[in-house]
Amino acid sequence: MKIAWGITGAGHLLQDSVEILEMLSMDHKITVFLSRAGEEVLKMYGLFERITSVTGGYYQELVTEAEQKSSYPIAGRFSLGKYDLLVVSPTTSNTIGKIVNGIADTLITNIIAQAGKGRVKTYVIPVDLELGNIETVLPSKLELEICQNCETCEAAAACPSTAISPGVEINLLQCQGCGVCQMACSFDAIKGGKKIKIHMRDVDIRNTRKLYEFEDLEVLRHPLEIKNLI
Length: 230
Ligand SMILES: Cc1cc2nc3c(=O)[nH]c(=O)nc-3n(C[C@H](O)[C@H](O)[C@H](O)COP(=O)(O)O)c2cc1C
Known about the structure:
Layout: E1 2-7, H1 14-24, E2 29-34, H2 36-44, H3 48-53, E3 62-64, H4 76-79, E4 85-91, H5 93-100, H6 107-117, E5 122-126, E6 132-137, E7 141-142, H7 154-158, E8 164-165, E9 169-170, H8 180-184, E10 190-191, E11 195-200, H9 202-211, E12 217-219, H10 225-229
Parallel strand pairs: 1-2, 1-4, 2-3, 4-5, 5-12
Antiparallel strand pairs: 6-11, 7-10, 8-9
Helix pairs in contact: 5-9
Residues 8-12, 35, 37-38, 41, 44, 92-95, 106, 127, 136, 139, 172 line the site of flavin mononucleotide.
């Protein structure tokens, strides 16, 4: 099968999405489409290299929004029915809000709109599904109450991306999620994978519900479900 997989800038369900994508890439040709935020967030969680290693070749490209122009000509592949399936996982509340209002001004919202026009079957896995709280995982975080403000910060010295301002914060836009800082700090002041609770806003849940009305588009609860559908 020729599959297109879109990734937006959500940390939630990101690791699970990458794992399923890797598994499918063994038997199918997968083109990966990254929103600008999707690319940034993949790097923060140390998952970007895993995407580059499963892409490469015709219909197995890594297409980044950062490299595209405003008309997204590559989205034409969908209106021409060149893909058998489009999966977008994880899908941010921002992207869902745009889709349900018919807005197509980003790489991911464009491929969804063109997939609709080309009648390409689409699975969307939204992060915001139901009212209430969800538990999600943070990228690397400097815990200031543990940080000892060492004269020479071992974590900052070890960081290959110079992303750490000692005693202040990690610049996530520079962080590549390699985790070297966590091992370097003798005081264990940098945590990776810390879990926090996030409240789902009414507006986001209302938008997700509107998605169920779309033709040729199915809303899934978790990327694992795709395994049973292909
Ligand atoms: C570390 C990190 C994690 C994020 N996780 C989420 C998330 O789980 N869900 C969400 O809706 N937005 C999340 N965001 C915010 C989106 O990246 C942001 O709204 C972005 O503009 C979405 O753009 P996109 O929909 O084009 O990908 C996260 C941002 C950061 C920095």
